[in-house]
Amino acid sequence: DIVMTQNTLSLSVTPGQPASISCKSSQSLLLSDGKTYLYWFVQKSGQSPRLLIYEVSNRFSGVPDRFSGGGSGTDFTLKISRVEAEDVGVYYCMQSKELPFTFGPGTKVEIQ
Amino acid sequence: EVQLVESGGGLVQPGGSLRLSCAASGFNFSNYGMSWVRQAPGKGLEWVSAISRSGNKTYYADSVKARFTISRDSSKSTLYLQMKSLRVGETAIYYCAKEGAVVGIGYLQYWGQGTLVTVSS
Fold first, then answer.
1. Which residues does chain B have within 8 Å of residue A101's beta carbon, measured at their own beta carbons?
2. Residue B46: enclosing H or E segment and its boundaries?
């Protein structure tokens, strides 16, 4: 199975400041079709997960442009350019290059 | 608006069975694959199973293979997860999720609110 790692389990950020969340996979998520199957989700307290970014860097509909995704191969990053209070939650990366799909352990973002 | 509403959760004894449902609306159900993902209390996310849009291909995590069965009824726009021989460690919120592309699986675009399954004696 592909192991997804998020080394930072908790991140405390000052509103208005940037934040960066990293995610690493145990093998490359680049498939022969040229796509890289890495996704980012956020789960706010008491809610179901919500898609933020698909295929590394594509913002899902309705996601504010302060969120951006990047990376390649095995190393990926979710960036929030200016954190807002509503961004509090747990951020998960997920790979769907191969079965079973696997998630990172999550990074909890808190506001200072 | 895409809506996914799970139901069927509840308290079940170890070794027991339960069938979860996910009623879908707001999109053409027949055009998209679907998945189940679970989350144990206070823990992370675990993919459980997926089904192709036609229903002819199904996929399972090793931990549930041969005990769980995913299926769909396009006439009812409903996804199912039949669970047998449930274990205490499978207590979790079970979410259904809609695929984001008409081809393939793994692009979990929309999620339901989840249904809680508690396995306990």
1. 35, 47, 50, 106
2. strand B45-51
